[in-house]
Amino acid sequence: MITLTDEQIEKEYHMHHAIADVKNVLQDLKDDAIIQAPRTVLPVDGNSSMLYMPCISTASKISIIKTVSIFPVNKDLPTTQGNLLVTDLTKGEHKATMDASYLTRLRTGAMTAIATERLARKDAKTLGAIGTGNMAFEQVLGVVEVRDIERIVLYNRTKEKAQKFKERLEAFGIKADIDVVDNASDVVTQSDILNCATQSTEPVFDGNDLKPGTHINGVGSFKPVMKEMDETTIKRANQIYADDLESVKEEAGELIHAVDVGIISWDDIKGELVDIFEQDYLRQDDEEITLYKCVGAGYFDLAVAGGVMKMFAE
């Protein structure tokens, strides 16, 4: 059995690899070749959580189980830490353990790339990001993979973190002009595409500030108590998509709330990533507001774990 660290994986396995592998696993899902159990989220003290996600692909003959710890209180360690166990289903042999923090961020960014490719305006030039924690970086990478972004506007409650995030993007080689602003409204009013990656239990921006034609990627909240988007945003969205509808029904706080108070019904969700990854551009016109909500599912982790295994087995 091999052991792979985040650093080893990050050197070799990048966003374009992850996008291709996520599309492949979505095809497996479409072909009924994916078996998974519901994600288990266990609360720890305060806002900390433990997540457990098992999944099998009968097409690729591998199984994964991912364990993730989410500890917002961390100062000297990452907020999110994960590990994946990969099993070969031909003989039941455990083939690898690998760090999953980078892969979790990367597969989520790849999923955002697929949604953005289908839903954001083709001429979108300005990307806004609210929340500049670890998860947010690969969200930016996913968007710039599929749209020609000329400007990025950043906001974080702690401005110093947003500034460091800007420096990290520049060091990575992102060519867009990058600005750090003092409030969320300055991000929202300027954005053609808006990434929201926080674990807030209260909305972090005012939906009235959204420009017509904005595409929103909501990836931060993953528990029913979390609501980083407000009711106005849900009301204004002309099209809403989910990464995995069953998971969203259990975990996406802002959509659960919107259904509970009658703003939308679950039937108003237009589809999931598996429904749109092969489709053409889905936006009806340049005035529509579109929303993609992501909470994650095990088969997305299987996608990138399988891709890494192929790369490191060669």
Describe the structure.
With 314 residues, the chain is an alpha/beta fold. The protein folds into two domains: 117 residues, ornithine cyclodeaminase, domain 1, CATH 3.30.1780.10; 176 residues, Rossmann fold (3-Layer(aba) Sandwich). The protein is 37% helix and 25% strand. The chain contains eleven helices and 15 strands. The strands form two sheets. The chain has an eight-stranded parallel beta sheet. β8, α4 and β9 form a beta-alpha-beta unit. α2 packs across α11. The protein is globular and about 55 Å long. The two termini are 15 Å apart. Belongs to the ornithine cyclodeaminase/mu-crystallin family. It comes from Salinicoccus roseus.
Quick description:
This protein has 314 residues and is α/β, with parallel strands linked by helices. The chain is 37% helix and 25% strand. The protein is built from eleven helices and 15 strands.
Order of strands, main sheet, comes to: 10-9-8-11-12-15-13-14
The CATH topology of the largest domain corresponds to Rossmann fold
Strand content: 15-25%
Average pLDDT level: 94
Overall strand count:
15
Low-pLDDT parts are: none
By secondary-structure content and strand pairing, the structural class works out as alpha/beta
Q: Report the principal-axis shape.
A: globular
Biggest sheet character = 8 strands, parallel
Total count of helical runs of at least 4 residues: 11
CATH class of the largest domain reads Alpha Beta
Radius of gyration: 18 Å
Distance between the termini: 15 Å
Work out the count of structural domains: 2
Pfam families: OCD_Mu_crystall
Protein name: Ornithine cyclodeaminase
Organism: Salinicoccus roseus
InterPro entries: NAD(P)-bd_dom_sf, ODC_Mu_crystall, ODC_N
